[in-house]
Amino acid sequence: MNLQEIVNFGECGYIEYKSEWYWDLNTNSPKDTDWGEFIKDVLALINANSSSIEKTRYLVIGYDESNNDYYNFNLTDENYPNLSKKMKDKLRNFISEFSKIKFKLELKKTNKGNIILISIEQPIMLHALSKNIKTRTIEYPKNTVLGRVHNEGNYGKYDSVGILSEEEKEEIKSKLQQPLNNFSTKRRKKSIQATINSYLEVNNSFKLNNDTSKNSDELDKYYEFYELIGTSEQYFLYISDISIKATIDKFKKDIFSKLDNKLIELIVLTDAPKETTKNRRKENLEKYLKESKINHFKIHFIDDFGKDFLYRDHIEPFLFDKDYQNTKYFIDSHVTSKERPSEELKASEVISSWFQEEDNPVIVLTGEGGIGKTTLAKYFLNNTLKNLTDDKQYVLFLDSATLVGKLKESRIHSIYDLYKVDTDEKKSPSFTDSLFKLSIDNGSFIIVLDGLDEIISKLGDDFQLISFLERIYQDYCFNLSKTKIIITCRDSVWEEAVSGKKIAHLPPKSIYSMKAFNFEQVEEFFRTCFKNEQDSDKLEKKAKSFVEKLITTTGNKSNENIYSPFILDRIREIILDNISEQQLEDLFDDSYNLDSLCFSKSNRNDYFIYSVCKREIIKTQITVEDQIKLLCSLCKYNDLLSHYEFCNELKNILNRKATKQDEHSFISHPFIYSNDSRTKIGLKYDFLKDFFLKF
């Protein structure tokens, strides 16, 4: 859940709110009882109760549930680093086996000030106090197991802290068995085996020495050691991010102390840290290795090693080096999830929160054509990637509208199949399936599959959507699981494709439906569009007048049907063409021609598209009939047309050879796309195909 979802959910067995910190941060003089309160609350959330199994726990410090608002408790960017360090130290010192807990501490900025969000994933065991603590009301001895219990008078809410009964502890232990097995498997599969296999694939002069290569037999002290032999020897060591020092000590005892040559140079690979910086992690590793008298090594993070030594050249074409276009007037939409369809959330917050989550590789954005799915994805990439600290970011943007024209074979089983269709394999013949999988699992680039509905519609039963989605989890989330894939799809096509079917691994919380703008968002959109124009207020008023006319004329019962970003953006273009009040009236006074062209005046898409085409008569002197004929003819093609093909279509419609002015007039049409050189021409919006194919 993102922050907004958490504060909207309400306190329960796994969510707790604190309106302010446990003492006045300005005084910076906590008592032992203050820390005792903090440790008590966190430990209770860690264990929670038998009804909260497999739930992520959240503690929000700085949210007042009684007022439904955030509270400023003087947390600053300056005092937070020292406070967060002390918080972690206290928890490590007072909670048993704290290193086994997946714990995340974040500073979040709100309109009222900074707050703290603590997230705790489902633990694999019950945890207890490792030392006595004293709170403001009671003292808890060492080995006490705290949890979330019933609040007196509010049975069933589990929003109080208490000592867990023996019966409750046994119930929790019983329910923990399956999550424990999942956790163990997950931790054990964090490995460099796939990296070593890919290294051997790229460097085929080496082979693995199976006699000397060995893996640790302990989950909490897990390492992998590989010796590669060829013209020389290379030695790889993987150190798990759990109990690093103990793991290095075990490796020294098991392997290093028995090596004849202590001067070998180890290539040490490890996981990128979550709660500290990469430099800090490297410094600690270096310190622990040298304390164990292991002095010759080079340290790499697994994902960085892949980029630097295995597939850098292959992902370089995906380099994100400039912003995606058409996000200039972006206004945040609302979305609802399949998990909680009645609750509207901000789209940008949802996708940003998803991007930060681990082991959540896919987000699906559904909605009608023109609702802003692609714009949201591009806006997110523009704003997220430029703020990341790494030097280079990579995106594989798969545009289905372009892909469908290249689908020579009907069998598409995986993302890799789509990549091969999209890319000239002759330019990158050695980016093999296994390297591709490794690079995605390492999180080396983001994938956007834009307009999956196009592929579903093109291939029909030959494209198995459920199998395609499940293979994402099986093939591209097998180790580090840093995979991030954004899928956009029209809602009607998605619903039909998944109707009555279960998608393994893809939870309802990862599928979102985008909503049309509300009136406030419409106002914000036009305000943003015209703010730098002369007479901006007048232009805004005229644009809103156009919207109102469209609502009135079509007799829409729901204004939402008019507030589509696509329609609003076309209205912006019309208004910026300096349309007069009379011309605006004329656009809505032509019901006869509407009927003769088989348009429905009560259908907002029919009426709006007709209005746009009618407006083009003033600019280009091309009749609505000829515009519609050309737009319909473009729908016959799955790919963009060459300039020659486009001119042939134009000639057939006009019944004469097209002039340069004809070409210019049609190519500049609001519904037609052309690249800068005019060598590729087609429909600007793929969803319009459905509209024009009905004629």
TrEMBL record:
<dbReference type="GO" id="GO:0005524">
    <property type="term" value="F:ATP binding"/>
</dbReference>
<dbReference type="InterPro" id="IPR007111">
    <property type="entry name" value="NACHT_NTPase"/>
</dbReference>
<dbReference type="InterPro" id="IPR027417">
    <property type="entry name" value="P-loop_NTPase"/>
</dbReference>
<dbReference type="Pfam" id="PF01637">
    <property type="entry name" value="ATPase_2"/>
</dbReference>
<feature type="domain" description="NACHT">
    <location>
        <begin position="361"/>
        <end position="490"/>
    </location>
</feature>
<protein>
    <submittedName>
        <fullName>NACHT domain-containing protein</fullName>
    </submittedName>
</protein>
<dbReference type="InterPro" id="IPR011579">
    <property type="entry name" value="ATPase_dom"/>
</dbReference>
